[in-house]
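#onboarding

Welcome to the new folks! Below is a worked example of what a typical request in this channel looks like: someone posts a single protein sequence, and someone else replies with the predicted structure as tokens. Don't worry about understanding the tokens yet, we'll cover that in week two.

Example request:
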Amino acid sequence: MKLLLAEDTKDLNHALVTVLSMQHYDVDTAYDGEEALSLIRQNGYDGVILDIMMPKISGLEVLRDMRAHNITTPVLLLTAKSEVDDRVQGLDEGADDYLTKPFAMKELLARVRSLVRRGREYHAKELHCGDLTLNAENLELTSENTVRLSMKEFELMHLLIQNEGKEFSTKGLLEHVWSDEPDAGADTVWLYINFLRGKLGSISSSVVITGEAGGSFCLRQNGK
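Example response:
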């Protein structure tokens, strides 16, 4: 698996490359956004790890350029605790996940495994439910319009479509979608349910996700 790591703090960059290389990832490195964008345009990667705050071009600008040029490589954002708005913006603009500094190396590796496993796990290129199509190759959800999902949004929607009409408890969704993230909780599930509801609305789909915070959730056609 080939990764790009864009992190301007040299000591952290070196430490992350060492850890990732020990796990048999082939890692290219960049120390600013301009260099990262150049490498992304030249090479194919299985995953990109982007620090939000970088010299020359920010991680969000790199991400925005990638998605504008239909580069669908999964992206993990590295953020500071104070960068809440940037995290939300990053997810809205096509990031697949984020990790808040400081973080444990074990957690980083878990997030990276989640990031790059999409191509190995999702064999069906398309899933359908009513007027809804989920494309596993480019993480797009289509009805009257098309919207791109983050990796976690995709995993959650994939599970719900495969089990249309079946109710999942909040705990069940945590076990299925966030099994490698021990810090995830009911608030995490509710956040992503609302992300998906917003995207279903944005593409004018008649498919709905029923349920309330902390309870059970179900994907249904036409609200039935």
